[in-house]
Design goal:
The complex is a heterodimer of chains A (331) and B (589).
Chain A: H1 2-29, H2 34-37, H3 47-57, H4 63-76, E1 78-80, E2 87-89, E3 96-97, E4 102-103, H5 104-139, H6 144-158, H7 161-175, H8 191-225, H9 228-235, H10 240-268, H11 272-278, H12 283-292, H13 296-324, H14 327-330
Antiparallel strand pairs in A: 1-2, 3-4
Chain B: E1 10-12, E2 15-20, H1 36-39, E3 44-48, E4 69-74, H2 89-95, E5 103-107, E6 112-117, E7 125-126, E8 133-137, H3 152-161, H4 173-179, H5 191-194, E9 202-206, E10 209-213, H6 221-224, E11 253-259, E12 263-268, E13 286-291, H7 295-304, E14 312-314, H8 323-327, E15 336-349, H9 357-366, H10 369-375, E16 382-384, H11 411-418, E17 424-430, H12 433-448, E18 452-458, H13 460-467, E19 476-482, H14 492-496, H15 518-529, H16 532-550, E20 553-564, E21 569-570, E22 573-574, E23 581-582, E24 587-588
Parallel strand pairs in B: 3-6, 4-13, 4-14, 17-18, 17-19
Antiparallel strand pairs in B: 1-2, 2-3, 5-6, 7-8, 8-10, 9-10, 11-12, 12-13, 15-19, 15-20, 16-20, 21-24, 22-23
Helix pairs in contact in B: 9-11, 10-12, 15-16
The chains are: A mainly alpha (331), B alpha+beta (589).
């Protein structure tokens, strides 16, 4: 198991390094001079000022030096510029947004909790609803419940969040006033207000994804139920609860764990549309605004973070897979 | 729809009236989008000459009461709260509630503007009578939030720090005027860079007296000092770029909490003395700004009008998709504001490349202005224009359109002017919803007249740096402009005085048409020497002269403001000075 883990971690680190190089290359490929964009409203942005900004951002250094400084900054922090104009960026420094005048880490620290709040809550909703509906549908195949569940999940899977989200807002907030306007409050400040604000995004993102998971769970469960070992378990006289809950569920859930891990990793990288629809400034919306404003340090950091989330989720899924299915370890 | 001409000079009470509503013959009423509030408003603008106008307290508003929390909603956080870095009107409007400037426009929401002293005892004393030397006396008893009195030194320090490159996002009028050059950093770089707080031309005579000395006349100084550049900053509280997070209050409120991208909460500043303040009422106990919801969500919330939203004012206007819903709902009429905005859009013609005036005139004839406006929402979004100044500008005059091609352009007239020439144009357009919707209309209308138009899209952040670079390889591009105060002196000299232009390759030029004409420059010099109360008609003459003689640009449309607020908000109005909602008269029912 240790060897398995080390192998996976090494692979993850290598992938991350490769992504960091590609992301850093993006910085140089964009058809603009970031220093020019940072020049402000001055009537003249002369060569002297441009050179000053380039020097402060480190843009006057060769690309490989800049990459080295960027990576070093993640571990030991760095200072941009010098003298009165110096800007400190403590470790883990993911760059400095001169447009926002603050370290990217501070921006991430502010916006990531918003995205985490949305994603983990929504994931709980979609896993709970998706798995339970899917499993019950499989066990009651062909019944009215199964037909309704399949139909509903088809509708859910077909609806985009920008439509369903606005629909929820109009029906539950604007027209009936059943729920308050979603207004983000940090969980540390007021857990009840935090949860209240998250209800709509959780329902929105959770319901839409639960449709996919319900279909997946139903299909997996049906396949598993037709396996020989289930028949054997039944023949041995085991109770339904043991056969379904202990044997069939464990086998059926393995591919769902894989998909859930990847989905979680992807969503943690930013739920741009969900954040925009419900008016939250999370990591996704921040990344989008940064891309539109060519605020490249934020773009780079968010791309890297998204990669970290996806790769971490992959490693976790692999480990979980190995726990659930011992054959994985052997291979 | 109502037009608000600002033409003529007359005396009214204790004020010199710079512009008065009237000229009914010029007015036009399309009647389809205007509300009662809009149609009954009539604008006048003035500089107060009686110090009593600058004295507090502001007269009580009948029926107004104290208490409650005013809620403001905006999608994006303010670019800056540091006053010397502030150049967005939404930030200016909120800053007015916790920061004070040397002068400020006092408005009544009915179109009457009066520039008064805010921190200063009056709107300024023109010492020599030629606008080269101005003296400002500060009121006694204006205090910062820690209880210390605001002095001339604090105002001077605020202006000094505005020279710093690191704080270089705010307006630059004062810096350029004091240094007598657009490259003002060659004269003074600011207190961080030089260690000196002595700004050339700015003298602190004593604790309460400040003197500005210019090499050239600047009769609009009282207006320019209403911008946040003149907000006092105590040197020992200056945290440089960090000041953006927590500016030190001198107004009726102070910052209680600011969570970037999430919320800004203002609470009462007990050190504020209403007797020193002729403008602000500060009826609500607190002001809470919420960042996040987009314009559609803001408008839907206002329509639903439930809970705290009854006390809310949204900042981002009504999106195109909801315009009809808002305008056609009679229940919203009392809380809907629609009026001409201060922003204008125009098609800049690069005069360095298009030197033939007939080609420029042909572009003006051919352009489908109504078509462009239609992509932005038609009548509800603005009105087409042919002057260089918006009708909210002091001295604006509605002269006949010299290139009247009808609402959708006149390709035949344009063809005549081209005389059979096949002219190729490269059109630079923003790669945004605005750019993508307007570019096809521009291209199609010009091609009907025989132009060959190539559209090149560019990302929004790169658009202005590109067009503001002299020698850029583009022939036409859509630009926008909003005057920093309602006088043509903040538009004509900035956009049309070619002497400000740098050489080839120079960046940051405001005159993006690269227009330079000696006779126009001479007229600008003449107008700049006139007292602000007399200059309006002169600027209007220059507007007409530039368009008729040179046609360096094609004005397209002037924006309209359309917003709706919560049912328990009273006293909200859109400022003619800064073009957005202002809050100093707001009270909560």
């Amino acid at each position: 198991m240790h060897r398995f883990l080390i192998k996976k971690l090494l692979l993850a680190v290598t992938t991350l390094l490769a992504i960091s190089v590609i992301t850093f290359a993006l910085f140089f490929l964009v058809p603009s001079n970031p220093a020019e964009v940072m020049c402000g409203n001055r009537q003249r942005c002369g060569p002297e000022r441009l050179a000053q900004i380039e020097q402060r951002m480190g843009l006057d250094q060769p690309a490989y030096v800049q990459y080295g400084q960027f990576m070093k900054g993640i571990f030991v922090g760095r200072t941009f510029g010098e003298g009165a104009a110096a800007r400190d960026c403590p470790a883990p420094c993911l760059g400095f947004s001169f447009r926002n005048d603050e370290p990217v880490t501070a921006i991430v620290a502010r916006t990531l909790p918003v995205t985490l709040s949305i994603v983990f809550g929504a994931a709980a909703v979609w896993l709970l609803i998706g798995l339970s509906v899917g499993m019950v549908s499989a066990l009651r195949r062909g019944t009215f419940f199964d037909k309704v569940a399949v139909g509903t999940s088809l509708v859910g899977a077909s609806m985009p969040i920008f439509f369903f989200g606005y629909l929820l807002l109009i029906v539950l907030v604007y027209e009936t006033g059943l729920l308050p306007n979603p207004k983000y409050t940090p969980i540390t400040e007021n857990p009840a207000a935090w949860a209240g604000a998250m209800v709509l995004p959780w329902i929105g993102l959770g319901f839409l994804n639960s449709a996919t998971y319900a279909r997946l769970a139903r299909a997996q469960m049906l396949e598993t139920l037709s396996e020989d070992f289930v028949r054997t378990a039944r023949a041995k006289g085991l109770s339904k609860a043991t056969v379904y809950g202990r044997h069939a569920l464990r086998a059926a859930i393995t591919p769902i764990v894989t998909i859930a891990g990847l989905d979680l990793g992807t969503y943690l990288g930013g739920t741009v549309i969900t954040e925009t629809v419900f008016g939250f400034t999370g990591l996704g919306k921040t990344a989008l605004n940064a891309a539109l404003n060519l605020d490249m340090p934020i773009v780079m950091a968010t791309v890297l973070l998204a990669a970290v989330f996806i790769i971490t989720a992959n490693v976790l899924v692999d480990v979980l897979y190995a726990v659930i299915d011992p054959r994985v370890r052997l291979s | 729809m109502r037009m608000r001409p600002r033409l003529g000079v007359a005396a009214a009470g204790t004020a010199i009236v710079l512009a008065a509503g009237g000229l009914a013959a010029c007015s036009e009423n399309k009647g389809d989008t205007g509300t009662e509030q809009e149609q009954t408003k009539q604008t006048t603008s003035a500089i107060a000459t009686d110090p009593k106008d600058s004295q507090g307290p502001a007269p009580e508003i009948p029926g107004a009461k104290e208490g409650g929390t005013l809620r403001l909603i905006q999608e994006a956080d303010f670019e800056h709260l540091d006053p010397q870095r502030t150049y967005t009107v939404s930030a200016m409007a909120v800053e007015q509630m916790f920061l004070r400037t040397l002068t400020m426009f006092k408005e009544d929401g009915q179109g009457n503007l009066l520039l008064v002293g805010d921190i200063a005892t009056d709107a300024g004393k023109d010492v020599k009578g030629d606008c080269t030397q101005w003296e400002y006396t500060l009121k006694k008893g204006v205090k910062f939030e820690d209880g210390r009195e605001v002095t001339a030194k604090d105002v001077a320090y605020g202006i000094a720090r505005s020279f710093e490159d690191d704080l270089g996002d705010g307006p630059t009028y004062l810096q350029e005027w004091l240094a007598d050059t657009g490259d003002f950093n060659t004269v003074y770089k600011g207190p961080y860079s030089t260690g000196s707080t002595n700004v050339p031309g700015l003298t602190v005579k004593d604790d309460y007296t400040l003197e500005f000395t210019f090499k050239q006349p600047h009769c609009d100084l009282p207006f320019a000092l209403s911008l946040p550049t003149s907000v006092p900053v105590p040197q020992d509280k200056d945290t440089k770029t960090e000041y953006d997070r927590r500016p030190f209050a001198s107004g009726p409120y102070k910052i209680k909490e600011y969570v970037k991208d999430t919320r800004l909460v203002l609470e009462r500043n007990p050190q504020w003395d209403p007797k020193t303040d002729p403008i602000r009422h500060a009826y609500p106990d607190s002001i809470a700004v919420e960042f996040g919801p987009d314009d559609a969500a803001q408008t839907e919330r206002m329509i639903a009008d439930s809970g705290d939203d009854q006390y809310a004012i949204p900042y981002d206007g009504v999106p195109q998709a909801l315009v009809n819903k808002v305008l056609n709902d009679p229940s919203l009429k009392d809380r809907t504001i629609t009026q001409p905005g201060i922003f204008m859009y125009y098609l800049s013609i690069n005069n360095d490349r298009i030197k033939d005036v007939n080609v420029r005139k042909a572009i003006a004839y051919a352009l489908d202005k109504e078509g462009i406006l239609a992509t932005q929402g038609g009548d509800a979004a603005g009105k087409v224009m042919h002057t260089l100044l918006t009708d909210t500008t002091i001295g604006w005059k509605d002269y006949p359109n010299p290139y009247d091609g009808g609402p959708h352009g006149d390709p035949e007239k344009a063809k005549q002017l081209l005389g059979g020439k096949k002219v190729k144009l490269v059109f630079l357009s923003r790669n945004t919803a605005f750019g993508q919707s307007t570019a096809p209309v521009v291209k199609e209308s010009l091609e009907k007249a025989g132009f060959e138009v190539t559209v090149q899209y560019i990302e929004q952040p790169q658009h202005n740096p590109t067009t503001r670079t002299r020698g850029n390889p583009y022939d036409i591009y859509i630009s926008n402009w909003a005057a920093d105060w309602p006088s043509a002196a903040s538009t004509i000299p900035v956009l049309w005085d070619g002497r400000h232009l740098g050489g080839p390759g120079s960046k940051g030029n405001s005159d993006v048409s690269y227009f330079n004409a000696d006779d126009v420059n001479a007229k600008i010099d003449e107008a700049a020497k006139l007292p602000a109360g007399e200059a309006g008609p002169k600027w209007a003459e220059i507007d007409q002269m530039i368009m008729e003689k040179y046609c360096p640009v094609v004005p397209i449309y002037q924006t309209k403001v359309l917003s709706v607020h919560g049912s328990k908000v009273a006293g909200d109005f859109v400022s003619d000075a800064i073009g957005t909602d202002v809050f100093y008269n707001v009270w909560l029912k």
